Amino acid sequence: MNLFSARPLGATAARPSAPLAPGSTIGIMGGGQLGRMTALAAARLGYTCHIFTDERGSPASQVAAAATVASYADQAALAAFADAVHAVTFEFENVPHESVRFLTERIPVRPGWDCLRIAQDRLVEKEFINRLGIPTTAYASVEREGALAAAVQAIGRPAVLKTARMGYDGKGQVLIAENTPLDAAWREMGNSHAILEGFVDLAMEISVIVARGLDGKWVAYPPVENRHRNHILDVTRAPAAISDALARDAIALSAKLADAMGLVGLLAVEMFVARDGRLLVNEIAPRPHNSGHWTIDACVTSQFEQFVRAVAGLPLGSVDRHADAVMQNLIGTDVEQWPALVAEPGAKVHLYGKNEIRPGRKMGHVTRLYPKGSLTKE
Length: 378
Ligand code: AMP
Description:
Oligomer: single chain
CATH class of the largest domain: Alpha Beta
Bound molecules: adenosine monophosphate
Number of domains: 3
CATH architecture of the largest domain: 2-Layer Sandwich
Number of helices: 11
């Protein structure tokens, strides 16, 4: 077989488990920085990427061979996209799962649309996780304002009210403290179907990224510690300074979730370590994750390469790390520090090509490496 002649378009549908040959085209739904870094990793393995996004000049399109700019619900554009690629994946959760399902009838979609459906709705997600016997925060569904008082009664204060769908980076979240009026909280959250969660007294927030291949084999990066600023990830410290037993538990439950979803791709599992020692899953994302950016500079195989390998049906790579790492997000005007950062020896600067700085917008990140084992010794 000539490695460098990709199968003709459409031929993969008949042989869904054959690995994509170099030269094949991977379609990515979503045009953000996760798509951009995935396209860069795909290029290194000889693939080209075609981005489907509703944004002109998106971070991902800038580094991809082709882009379709259309609404995520545009079926004619989706059908043409399916004809132009060998497999499809997605880089953010808020792609309508119905559109991904539409693509599934035409082309291999990895991970499957059902993984997206679970992760898109905090209630569906929590039920799925609990059904596997994996603990989450206590929660209640709140379908309308009138149901909030009973939910607060059941869960207790303090609690966190979150929109069930389309929330990210703390958007659509309100803390219900001892004296918070419920009508104000409901309005601030956004008047939509919501979930009420018990507030957890946090010792630490950690996450695990699992990659799972087409053959069901999985690998996981070590748990990392995530620190947030204004609900947005600020710093990831890799690995997290936690006990070996806790790290093993975090990886085991993450792999269990990926297996149960039949996932092909990446699963990021965000967890709370409560002060009383409990390990609770907060949310899951079936895609590359901000808390895995450190792997680009510190691991044999980055999360993005691992993602491409899974989507393309290749064997997964080694998750060994050659260094410990601290990843700092550049949010909003933080990115104006770029001249100093690029002048700092050893600082690995990643900028996302976003031409407009907005408060809370992720503009880039910087990773600093430390001798392996040094961060967990502190
Ligand atoms: P989320 O969008 O669910 O990831 O929430 C964003 C951040 O808000 C989390 O990373 C936590 O720092 C905080 N948070 C969310 N839910 C809770 C909770 N139930 N208890 C304590 N902190 C929370």
